[in-house]
Specification:
Distance between the termini: 45 Å
CATH class: Mainly Alpha
Number of helices: 18
Number of strands: 0
Helix content: over 70%
CATH architecture: Up-down Bundle
Oligomer: single chain
Radius of gyration: 21 Å
CATH superfamily: MFS general substrate transporter like domains
């Protein structure tokens, strides 16, 4: 196939599908596993603790991110890891009907998380290599929207289907086994599609072979140049704590909706929880993500940072109302989730754009991977303890605590905004 034609492929042919494929294994490991474990009878404390450990591959991926730069092409890594993810999803499906389902499924979830983290490194690096800075700014809303669409598909539409299958078969393991076989088939198709549709930019070239010592030196150079960037300490604080409240909320939001009203939850069925996220949540998230990308492309990150941080954080108080009033009306629940999802879609855009800007320069693929690894650590550690905190405080006091946790986000935003003068977006050049 002609290389020039490959290079000129429209980003619309691969950016949406690539970031949908990036988000789907993440939501499977981080969110679908939570609902799966809840339906299989695990406690909130165990769910939050064990599922948070699955963040570890994303936290440690900086250790092997230079290898993605040095070995093979990013295009090769993308296609290969998508096929591996398909195999691990099939492994989870095979393990669920067995007596040792928890140990076996956790092992496959770990393999899936490792493969997904590697896929993230390659996909984000490919995005930055193939697209100009102006196109990166324009498509950031698109990529975030499709990434979040994957998450809503997982914790929404697939959960709805799981609920329907639970009722049809009256067999929870059988229902969820079919869901994971469906996911496995989807990922094999993703691998085949991207093998055909991803462009082949000249910048995505196989690096010259190096000796072991040269590769080790290249690794350390990649690692230490990140920390030599101006403002790196403040940037790390920002990446760690911008999502501090969400890291805890996300682990308990679905169990809260599923738990009986007698223990403080809303008593929704599996299907109803999927409907809340998969129908109303999709529309709100798409609107927030698209508007966030358009806003930053026009006025710059520095202009929108505070509004985006506020819209990311303040809708968390919706869950305080839910726990206090325990509304029966699905319309009220839908409206609250819509507000929270819109705010998240809009606010997360600032976070992604900052990491991309901070990673610019030599080793940008590995540096972006290091940013997202720090982000994963910021999600993992608070999430691990959130179940125990909720068990001690109860749902209402836990969500009040989540509301107070948003102050941490506002603090790190106040620290990071001056740094944007050092890493300006085009629209920030007049600052």
């Amino acid at each position: 196939m002609n290389t020039t034609r490959e290079q000129s492929k429209s980003p619309w042919r691969w950016v949406p599908s690539l970031y949908f494929a990036e988000g789907l294994p993440y939501v499977t490991v981080m969110s679908i596993s939570v609902i799966l474990f809840k339906r299989f009878g695990l406690s909130n404390t165990d769910i939050a603790f064990y599922s948070s450990w699955l963040y570890l591959p994303w936290t440690l991926k900086f250790l092997w991110s230079p290898l993605v730069d040095l070995l093979k092409t990013k295009r090769w890594w993308i296609v290969s890891t998508q096929l591996i993810i398909g195999a691990t999803l099939a492994g989870v499906a095979l393990s669920l009907p067995t007596p040792h389902w928890f140990q076996a499924s956790m092992a496959f979830f770990w393999l899936m998380a490792f493969s997904s983290a590697t896929h993230d490194i390659a996909a984000d690096g490919f995005y930055m290599l193939d697209l100009s800075e102006s196109k990166q700014a324009f498509f950031i809303g698109i990529r975030n929207t499709f990434y979040r669409l994957a998450m809503i598909t997982g914790q929404g539409l697939l959960v709805i289907l799981a609920g329907i299958l639970e009722k049809r078969f009256d067999n929870i393991p059988k229902a969820w086994t079919l869901i994971f076989y469906l996911l496995a088939a989807g990922f094999f198709l993703f691998g085949l599609y991207h093998a055909a549709q991803l462009p082949k930019p000249s910048s995505d070239a196989v690096q010259p072979k190096r000796k072991g010592k040269e590769m080790l030196n290249a690794f350390w150079e990649t690692f230490f140049t990140f920390f030599k960037k101006k403002g790196s300490f403040v940037a790390i604080l920002f990446i760690l704590f911008y999502r501090f409240s969400e890291a805890q909320l996300v682990k308990l939001s679905s169990p809260f909706l599923l738990d009986e009203r007698s223990v403080g939850g809303l008593g929704l069925s599996t299907t109803e929880v999927g409907s809340v996220y998969g129908v109303v949540g999709v529309a709100a998230l798409v609107a927030g993500g698209l508007l966030g990308g358009i806003a930053i492309s026009r006025n710059g990150l520095r202009f929108w940072l505070w509004p985006m941080a506020l819209l990311l954080s303040l809708p968390n108080f919706v869950y305080v109302y839910f726990a206090w009033a325990q509304p029966v009306s699905h319309w009220i629940i839908y409206a609250g989730v819509a507000l929270e999802q819109f705010g998240y879609g809009f606010g997360f855009t600032a976070f992604t754009m900052f990491m991309m800007l901070f990673s610019k320069g030599k080793h940008q693929t590995a540096h972006y991977a290091l940013c997202t690894a720090i982000m994963a650590l910021g999600m993992m550690l608070p999430g691990m303890l959130s179940g125990a905190v909720q068990a001690h405080l109860g749902y209402l006091n836990f969500f009040l605590y989540i509301g107070l946790s948003t102050l941490v986000t506002f603090f790190v935003v106040s620290l990071i905004r001056p740094l944007l003068r050092e890493h300006p977006h085009k629209a920030d050049n007049n600052i």
